[in-house]
Amino acid sequence: MKKTPSKPAIKSLHKSPSGIQGFDEITGGGLPTGRPTLVCGGAGCGKTLFGMEFLVRGATQFNEPGIFMSFEETIEELTQNVASLGFDLDDLVKNKKIALDYVRVERSEIEETGEYDLEGLFIRLAYAIDKIGAKRVVLDTIESLFAGLPNQLILRAELRRLFHWLKEKGVTAIITGERGDETLTRQGLEEYVSDCVIMLDHRVTEQTSTRRLRVVKYRGSTHGTNEYPFLIDENGFSVLPITSLGLNHIVSNKRISSGIPLLDKMLEGKGYYRGSTVLVSGTAGVGKTSIAAHFAEAACKRGERVLYFCFEESPNQLMRNMLSIGIKLKPWVRKGLLQFHATRPTFYGLEMHLAVTHKIVNVFKPDIVILDPINTFVVSDIEHEVKTMLMRMVDFLKSEQITALFTSLTSGGSTLENSDVGISSLIDTWLLLRDIELSGERNRGLYVLKSRGMANSNQIREFIITDHGVELRDAYIGASGGLTGSARVAQEALDNTEVLTRKNEIERKKREIEQKRKALESQIAVLQSDFDSAESEAVKLIKTEQDMIKKLEQDRIEMAVSRKAVMGKSATGK
Amino acid sequence: MGNPGKLERPMPERNQGKYVLRLYVTGTTNRSILAISNLKKICEEYLEGKYDLEVIDLYKNPGLAKGNQIIAAPTLIKKLPLPFRRIIGDMSNKEKVLLGLDMREVKEK
Question: For residue A319, what are the domain limits?
């Protein structure tokens, strides 16, 4: 023990990735390497499959060959069963990636005649391990031995030895066990396998079944402690580590159009934030789906991928209906940018919906996800479960930077704010569509109830569905408040006439002033001409006066000449 | 326990046939040695000249364990006469060994 600590002193547990979707995330890397793990659960919960997928993934993805020792199913049965999941065991066996061994224990054939041990099994396993250099081992279901071998004392001692032996061998092992009444396994295997215990469960509540997985124990490692839903489908197992999500997703400043210009205008003229969660809620028939369809179409036009979950209409019905208001969705479906998924909410449990959504999203990799509508879930489950489910959904979509649009149907009587399954805290932008009943008409109004991170409009706009899509009308805001429908039209007409009369008045005033000006001008003209004539008269007078002066001078000189007077210089005038 | 009784009738004809026995042991552990000596004693006593016993060491032939569905050691397999039987343990319980070999009636005679 004189090793100098060249490496960091803390050596964390090595883990072998299972390759099972999601499972490695819950456990932080997979199963404990070189240790046995107990997988327990009731009949038909997927234990064998879990083990098998662990081996197949190990062999194909991580280059770790594995041994499957079956105590229940024969090799043929096993091969057939997992072929439906796309695993070609024959091929893997041929390539020495996997070895299968069926251990048959028939009570009626066996006679106990004294002390014995299970060394035969050990030899068999060791031989198989060495033959293909296996790193992984699955024993399914070793408890069958209890039925075949009468001496429990020996069996228990030997099992304890077996698990020790597996550890010594350094193989990562899965031991499956049937669930007992009080204990995790019928024979109390959890006593022997104490490093890692995983429980699988298949529960039916309200006629819908959900498979769940829980890490009961994981020595030397942290792990998610929740029950996680899982799926078994044509691609094998997938566990959905949804509850492990936090609130540390990346936030985008980019904005995307809602597809309705005036709605964008209400949101600072730019639309929603990318990666945000939008809720459109309203009573029946107010046009929630239309808003969603607009958004989808706009996104497709930008070349983005849209995943549309409809829970009330079939895709074809939805496309037809949207076509009637001028939104063409079919071409985008053909192009592969838009994908519909239609299921009834009651088709699976909530968890399963989440799981399915998760899976589809991971496959399709959309930019936008639309759930239309979300509150049909409420029918199938209790409210708080719906809320946690949606929270997980929102967290998941956010972490993937996907913009989500949910629609929600609110019932007429209840107040709008509390009827939306209490998810308002999860929503970034909340559009509320409401009926405005006024003077014998039912009109639609839209307003932005909240929109995080933007200075949104606080107006209620009138929302009109036309044959070329949804239109928002600028709100009429006059002295008597907001008006919609024909009341708005009437008010506008009223306004128009008022404006007209005002205009007329102005015209009249203008004319009046013009006239006044003209009168003034004519007066000025008269005065001018008066003045002119007076002036010319004056000029004439001056002239005659001057002529007179000249004449007088002349006369005086002539007189002097005639008188022969000497004219002094001073005597002359000028 | 009903099995051996039912099988009494075909046995006498079968007595002519040889007992083909395979004893699988694991090296030279006490249990293996005990099983071999116990079995040999029983065979000499009840099946003198009518048996073909082969002792196989699983450590030397590990591949045989799978083909013969061996899990416990020691395991004695009675290949013939039918029915096929496996007798596990150190063969110290003679009664049980005889029962397993379907020779209970022999002992009773």
Answer: 255-474
Q: What is the ipTM of this complex?
A: 0.80
Please state the rounded mean pLDDT for residues A293-305: 89
Each residue of B45-94: pLDDT tens digit? 887 777 888 888 888 888 888 878 888 888 888 887 777 888 888 888 87
- Chain pair A-B, CB pairs under 8 angstroms: 103
User: Cα A524 vs. chain centroid, distance in angstroms?
Assistant: 79
Could you say which of B70, B84, B88 has the minimum Cβ distance to residue A112?
A: B88
Residue A520 within any structural domain of the chain: no
A95 and A169, same domain (yes or no): yes
- Nearest residue to A280 (alpha-carbon basis) of A378, A362, A403: A403
Answer for the pair A430, A281: CB distance below 8 angstroms, yes or no: yes
Q: Do A240 and A144 belong together in one domain?
A: yes
Instruction: Give the span between the Cα atoms of A353 and A357, in whole angstroms.
Output: 6
Question: Average per-residue pLDDT in chain A?
Answer: 81
Domains and CATH numbers, chain B: 16-108 (3.40.30.10)
Annotated catalytic residue A73: no
CA-based nearest distance A110→chain B, Å: 5
In a shared domain, residues A103 and A212 = yes
What's the half-sphere exposure (Cβ side, CA atoms, 13 Å) at B67? 6
Report d(CA A259, CA A370) in Å as an integer: 14
Check: CB of residue A158 under 8 Å from CB of residue A125: no
Asked if residues A184 and A177 have their Cβ atoms less than 8 Å apart, the reply is yes
Is the CA virtual torsion A182, A185, A189, A194 positive or negative?
negative
Q: Which of B66, B96, B100 sits opposite A101 (nearest CB)?
A: B66
Q: Do A331 and A293 lie in a common domain?
A: yes
Tell whether A163 and A105 lie within a shared domain: yes
Count how many domains chain A has: 2
Residue A72: active-site member: yes
Chain B nearest-CA distance from A383, in A, is: 54
Residues of A with CB under 8 A from a CB of B: 101, 103-105, 108-121, 123-124, 126-128, 145, 149
Tell me, rounded to whole angstroms, the distance of Cα B81 from its chain centroid: 11
State whether B89 and A149 contact (CB < 8 Å).
Answer: no
Task: State which of A422, A441, A474 marks the end of a domain.
Answer: A474
Please report, rounded to a whole number, the percentage of residues in chain A having pLDDT higher than 70. 86
**E strands, A125-171, in order:** 136-140
Q: Label residue A4 by pLDDT band (50, 70, 90).
A: very low
Domain membership of residue A558 (yes or no) is no
Q: Tell me if residue A74 falls in helix, strand or coil.
A: coil
Q: Which of A244, A263, A289 is the last residue of a domain?
A: A244
DSSP secondary structure string for all residues of A245-293:
--S-------EE--S-HHHHHHTTTT-EETT-EEEEEESTTSSHHHHHH
Contact A140, A111 (CB under 8 A): no
- Residues B21 and B43: their CA atoms lie apart, in Å, by 10
Pick the range with the lowest mean pLDDT from A266-275, A484-493, B78-87.
Answer: A484-493
Claim to verify: residue A306 and residue A402 sit in the same structural domain: yes
From A191, A227, A304, A312, the catalytic residue = A312
Chain A residues within 8 A of B75 when measuring between CB atoms: 116, 120
Tens-place pLDDT, residues A210-238: 788 888 888 887 777 777 878 787 777 87
